[in-house]
């Protein structure tokens, strides 16, 4: 959990289901945000890490991110992704292939991650996406060695709509 404390994240790329809902910004730029640790007090008054909130400048995330809390889950860091070249737009397809090739690592319930539910509006109806953040230490060769991978999965879609979920299931109205 320590790797997230007071970290700033600027996404380089966004793709896949849900990216349009939760990773699109009013400024039409990729999201930028900072993680802020929030603690609770135990019975002895000692501060205990509980979750992370997100701080962002206006326009760098959608309104659904206001007040969201990311809860730590799992305990095993993802270490299978290493030796990525430093990021530039020309490496986009390579990064996507490598990340997609490790989908099982990200789907493992033991994987260390932060999770939150982000509301969005589609066709005038509120829906919800589950966002999962993975911190991959030393995944990249270069001056910025760490990588954050954001996975988006539909948690609930607007009533009456059918949408596949990232886990292979789907839901919708009876036919």
Tell me what the structure shows.
This protein is mostly beta strands and 175 residues long. It has one domain (2-158). Helices cover 11% and strands 36% of the residues. It is built from three helices and nine strands. The chain has helices spanning 19-22, 92-101, 103-107, and strands spanning 8-10, 32-41, 47-55, 69-73, 113-122, 125-136, 147-156, 163-164, 170-171. The strands form two sheets. Strands 1-2-3-4-5-6-7 form a seven-stranded antiparallel beta sheet. A two-stranded antiparallel sheet has the order 8-9. The radius of gyration is 17 Å and the shape is globular. It starts with 7 loop residues before the first strand and ends with a strand. Residues 168-175 have low confidence and may be disordered.
Rg on CA atoms, Å: 17 Å
| Proportion in helices | 10-25%
Structural domain tally: 1
Order of helices and strands: EHEEEHHEEEEE
> Which residue ranges are poorly predicted, with pLDDT under 50 across at least 5 consecutive positions?
168-175
Mean pLDDT: 84
What percent of residues are in strands? 35-45%
Q: Features of this protein?
A:
disordered C terminus, 175 residues, mainly beta, 9 strands, two-stranded antiparallel sheet, single chain, seven-stranded antiparallel beta sheet, 36% strand, globular
């Amino acid at each position: 959990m320590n790797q997230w404390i007071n970290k700033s994240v600027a996404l380089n790329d966004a793709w896949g289901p849900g990216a349009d809902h939760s990773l699109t910004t009013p400024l039409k730029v990729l999201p930028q945000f900072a993680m802020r640790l929030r603690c609770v007090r135990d019975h002895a008054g000692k501060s205990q890490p509980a979750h992370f909130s997100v701080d962002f400048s206006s326009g760098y995330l959608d309104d659904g991110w206001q007040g969201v809390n990311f809860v730590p889950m799992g305990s095993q860091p993802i270490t299978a992704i290493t030796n990525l070249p430093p990021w530039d737009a020309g490496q986009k397809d390579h990064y996507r292939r490598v990340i997609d090739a490790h989908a099982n690592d990200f789907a493992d319930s033991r994987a260390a991650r932060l999770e939150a539910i982000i509301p969005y509006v589609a066709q005038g109806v509120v829906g919800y996406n589950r966002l999962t953040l993975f911190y991959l230490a030393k995944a990249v060769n270069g001056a910025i060695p760490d990588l954050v991978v954001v996975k988006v999965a539909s948690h609930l879609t607007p009533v009456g709509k059918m949408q596949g979920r990232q886990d292979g299931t789907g839901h919708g109205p009876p036919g």
